[in-house]
Amino acid sequence: MTDIISPSSPAANPAGRSFDELPLSPAMLTNLQQLGYLTMTPIQAASLPLALAGQDLIAQAKTGSGKTAAFALPLLTKLNPRRFAVQAMVLCPTRELAEQVTQEIRRLARFEDNIKIISLCGGTPMRPQINSLEHGAHIVVGTPGRIMDHLQRSSLKLEALDTLVLDEADRMLDMGFYDDIAYVAQQCPAQRQTLLFSATYPDGIAQLARRFLRNPQSVKLTEQHEDSTIRQRFYEVSHEGRLQAVGVLLKHYRPASTLAFCNTKQQCRDLLDVLQAQGFHALTLNGDLEQRDRDQVLIQFANRSCSVLVATDVAARGLDIAKLEAVINVDVTPDPEIHVHRIGRTGRAGEDGWALSLCSPAEMNRVDEIAKMTGSEPDWHELDALQSCDNSPLLPPMVTLQILGGRKEKIRPGDVLGALTGEAGFSREQVGKITVTEQSTYVAVARNIAREALRKLSAGKVKGKAVRVRSLED
Ligand code: ADP
Ligand code: MG
Q1: CA–CA separation, 267 vs 246, rounded Å?
Q2: Can you tell me the mean pLDDT for 444-461?
Q3: Ligand (nearest to CA of 171)
Q4: Alpha-carbon dihedral of residues 196, 201, 204, 209, nearest 10 degrees?
Q5: Pocket of ligand 1, beta carbon within 6 A
Q6: Residue 456: enclosing H or E segment and its boundaries?
Q7: 195-210 confidence digits (pLDDT tens)
Q8: Which of 188, 220, 252 is at the close of a domain?
Q9: Can you give the CATH number for the domain in which 183 is found?
Q10: Shared domain check, 213 and 241
Q11: Residue 3 pLDDT > 90, yes or no?
Q12: For an engineered disulfide with 16, which of 39, 218, 299, 378 has Cβ 3.0 to 4.6 Å away?
């Protein structure tokens, strides 16, 4: 999903160690090479030797560090494709993350053609999942609640399970899944390998590990951001002036994409109202959104047709989005580790990223904690000194068009790209990311051609058929 490579992203890690050092099959090594996995990321280099040797593991590393392959390679290596039973299970906090993991494991499993991987998440009907399970699956990826459902109905059997993975374990705990995870883990054979992955290490993780892992090894890679790529500034605000200050920062720094973190859902809603009233293209992510609306928000943010995504830590963590021009901490989080995690979302390839924090007098001690942990002096700036040299509205570079028709209609990204660059006559550069979901296809187009692209797509054909198209901006 990520299409921008940043210095801290896995692909840009030339000094890393090669996968050849690992006990992997030649077919797997060839596949990794074809996927462009040339060297291991640091978390992979630290955890793969242990996990491939069958050890239980607690692995901690930030989002985007390549954790999926760190557990997928060991479970794929152990898997026997001729045995039609669930041999590995991955628990994830949300459907989106489960789908991302499913896709990544599918890519990594390409060296064998007959490995069946299914995802079992809530919010989708049970029946098709039960049918897929009846047909036999080797790997299941899902959310704890839905997996528990299947276990209770006996549609999912775990006698043959060798590997249990808890992915984004900290976030599953945040979401209150402890009891569900415990139930699921108790249904697994005692003789198994358990791998726990997490971005942070709150108390609950130790408790999980004590109960469900056996002599686990810990692998921890704390984040080290290169100072040159993240420029961090603190601004003092009054509690009342906080939300207005976000707009002042956006007008001054003019980032194309910003993630604005709030500590509460209510504050997310309030900030969204303020920003939208000021004419910013802002959207929010929260647990109350329908799945389809969530998808639309993420798609628009990832394809650069939304300037600001307002979110809580829980809503934003684990999302596979490209590095951003700016992160704004609307308030300072009480946990310095979360602060470091938040600002790690900024800093793009070769460009500086801004990490801007608004701090009320009551939050000063939190900034002290951050300074203590990171060993750096906070860089304070005055909000009043900010001026916008450019008073034009801050508009996202792209606009998202939604085509009513998706995987169900067998539309592929190439069909849409073809329609726009063929008959419609646009250039490849004017077309951004194309995302195909079950029912819809979303294509980002350059803002200055959005109207015309909408008109031409509506008048023309995609995959030989007339389609209905709308802009998500009207
Ligand atoms: P995490 O789970 O730690 O957030 P992911 O497993 O989702 O990270 O990986 C982030 C991105 O990096 C994915 O797009 C993945 O395909 C890519 N990636 C992972 N490992 C490597 C590697 N060794 N070389 C190149 N790209 C990689
Ligand atoms: Mg992950």
Answers
A1: 12
A2: 95
A3: 2
A4: 30
A5: 2, 10-11, 36-37, 40-41, 44, 63-69, 104, 320
A6: helix 450-459
A7: 999 988 777 888 999 9
A8: 220
A9: 3.40.50.300
A10: no
A11: no
A12: 39
